[in-house]
């Protein structure tokens, strides 16, 4: 007999009621009295758990009663309705087969564990309610993002993880080498001889797939990447990870307004998809993790995102400079405290900040007519701050080359990128959505370490 999933039992209960079924899963809790016992079982296929009642008529009653939380079992029995109880039904077991016992020192007990403690056992935490909800929703968000772009005809491009360029120009890269670091080959002038390295030149893990994605946008028009990115940022915060996933659409014949429209459409689509497809998980977050979550997300669906230029935003924030650790002035980089103030206190909804000073943005952004600002946009959301960073790209060969020279970038490293401006250059735009920040936003989880299965942050690369 095949295993029926708990998900099937809940979604098609009429089919199974009063019939014999077989389910397999892990014990969440177990208690027994003399003649019978109760097991709460989770089989991982849905958020709901299933109650099992077993009796001393079973041959192995004593063995089952001794099982600990975490043990794996297969239960054969009849699904019966329980109109009086909290649960709509339970299984009256005829047989409980023990697949794998769980030692008495099982680190997860029925009580609520702190997220800090659960981070120390990242291999076991997906067995808890919170992390079942987080990682099911993470999976759904990824699916919804693909669905959104595929439905709009975007081509999914797999950009490389090992590259020779620094897209953001921030120098926060993990180097990739096969050289023996204790014995690095040197040139006559004492510098490292990368010609002897695997690729014959310095390489690093990618910080963004954008530059590669742009090349495909010039062939397919609308493309997106969705993959891991790496940043050796020494930022020990709740929203920075050294390894995170990014979604980067890139669109030809699109300006900054088109770019923002796609970003807003995508976020709304994903919110709607998750609310529709994970109602139990979203109710759980709303009840136990972030009380205003559902109201906030529904409000987002029913309103337009705010728009403000960087210059206007600075004026608005300057009025509240007494509240900030870092004082605001035109030309400063917006800190999380400023971003959150704008979106939480002033706009009270997601907001796009546009047209930043060129000095604080990457080399590839299109210079505005004022010669001082670039056609950039960041999307800020309540609770997190920046979730999306994007821009219209500089499509003029001369202006791009000029900017690269100003910043000291080596022309020969970006030949392919400059070529795009030589052969059929078009206005084009794109953005990067930080996937983990998106998961935080939709679940209300407050720390990026709790939305990545195995987080990599400063001083932490366990498992
Ligand atoms: O603003 P960023 O640096 O933009 C880019 O990398 C562009 N190349 C994207 C593009 O236009 N195609 O990063 C984009 C987003 C941020 O808004 C943030 O959500 C996320 O990536 N992000 C991080 N998430 C977690 N940990 C980090 N260390 C992150 N750094 C950026």
TrEMBL record:
EC code(s) of this entry: 6.1.1.22
Keywords linked to the UniProt accession: Aminoacyl-tRNA synthetase, ATP-binding, Cytoplasm, Ligase, Nucleotide-binding, Protein biosynthesis
Reactions this protein catalyses: tRNA(Asn) + L-asparagine + ATP = L-asparaginyl-tRNA(Asn) + AMP + diphosphate + H(+)
CDD domains xref list: AsxRS_core, EcAsnRS_like_N
Task: Please name the PROSITE patterns in this protein's record.
Answer: AA_TRNA_LIGASE_II
Gene Ontology MF, one: asparagine-tRNA ligase activity
Which residues span the membrane? Answer: none
Q: Does the keyword Transmembrane helix apply?
A: no
Source superkingdom = Bacteria
Predominant place of localization: cytoplasm
Intracellular or extracellular location(s): Cytoplasm
Ranges of residues in domain Aminoacyl-transfer RNA synthetases class-II family profile: 135-453
InterPro entries from the entry?
Answer: Aa-tRNA-synt_II (IPR004364), aa-tRNA-synth_II (IPR006195), aa-tRNA-synth_II/BPL/LPL (IPR045864), Asn-tRNA-ligase (IPR004522), Asp/Asn-tRNA-synth_IIb (IPR002312), NA-bd_OB-fold (IPR012340), NA-bd_OB_tRNA (IPR004365)
Query: What subunit structure does UniProt give?
Result: Homodimer.
Sequence similarity? Belongs to the class-II aminoacyl-tRNA synthetase family.
**What is the name attached to this protein's record?**
Asparagine--tRNA ligase
Tell me which species this is from: Enterocloster hominis (ex Liu et al. 2021)
What gene is this protein a product of? asnS
């Amino acid at each position: 007999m095949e295993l029926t999933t708990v998900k099937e039992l809940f979604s098609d209960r009429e089919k199974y009621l009063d019939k014999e079924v077989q389910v397999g899963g892990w014990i969440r809790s177990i208690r027994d009295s003399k003649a019978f016992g109760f097991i709460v079982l989770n089989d991982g296929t849905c958020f709901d758990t299933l109650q099992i009642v077993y009796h001393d008529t079973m041959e192995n009653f004593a063995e089952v009663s001794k099982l600990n939380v975490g043990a794996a079992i297969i239960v054969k029995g009849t699904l019966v309705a329980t109109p009086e109880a909290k649960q709509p039904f339970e299984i009256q077991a005829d047989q409980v087969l023990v697949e794998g016992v769980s030692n008495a020192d099982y680190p997860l007990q029925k009580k609520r564990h702190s997220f800090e403690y659960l981070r120390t056992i990242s291999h076991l935490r997906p067995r808890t309610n919170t992390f079942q909800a987080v990682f099911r929703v993470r999976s759904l968000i990824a699916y919804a993002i693909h669905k959104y772009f595929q439905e709009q005809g975007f081509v999914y491009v797999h950009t490389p993880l090992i590259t020779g360029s620094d897209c953001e120009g921030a120098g926060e890269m993990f180097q990739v080498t096969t050289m023996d670091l204790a014995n690095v080959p040197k040139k006559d002038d004492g510098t490292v001889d990368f010609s002897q390295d695997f690729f014959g030149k310095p390489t690093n893990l990618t910080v963004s797939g954008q530059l590669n994605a742009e090349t495909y946008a010039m062939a397919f028009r609308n493309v997106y990447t969705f993959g891991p990115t790496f940043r050796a940022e020494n930022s020990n915060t709740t929203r920075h990870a050294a390894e995170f996933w990014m979604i980067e659409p890139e669109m030809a014949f699109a300006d900054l307004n088109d770019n923002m429209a796609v970003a807003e459409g995508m976020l709304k689509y994903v919110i709607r998809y998750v609310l529709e497809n994970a109602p139990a998980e979203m109710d759980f977050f709303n009840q136990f993790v972030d009380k205003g979550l559902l109201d906030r997300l529904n409000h987002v669906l029913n309103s337009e995102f705010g728009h403000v230029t960087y210059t206007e935003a600075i004026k608005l924030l300057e009025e509240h400079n007494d509240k900030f650790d870092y004082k605001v002035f035109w030309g400063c980089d917006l800190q999380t405290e400023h971003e959150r103030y704008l979106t939480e206190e002033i706009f009270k909804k997601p907001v796009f900040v546009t047209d930043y000073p060129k000095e604080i943005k990457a080399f590839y952004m299109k210079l505005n007519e004022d010669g001082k600002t670039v056609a950039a946009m960041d999307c800020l959301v309540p609770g997190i701050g920046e979730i999306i960073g994007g821009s219209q790209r500089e499509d003029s060969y001369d202006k791009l080359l000029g900017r690269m020279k100003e910043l000291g970038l080596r022309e020969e490293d970006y030949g392919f990128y400059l070529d795009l401006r030589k052969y059929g250059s078009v206005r084009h735009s794109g953005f990067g959505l930080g996937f983990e920040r998106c998961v935080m936003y939709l679940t209300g989880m407050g720390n990026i370490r709790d939305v990545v299965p195995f987080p990599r942050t400063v001083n932490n690369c366990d498992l």
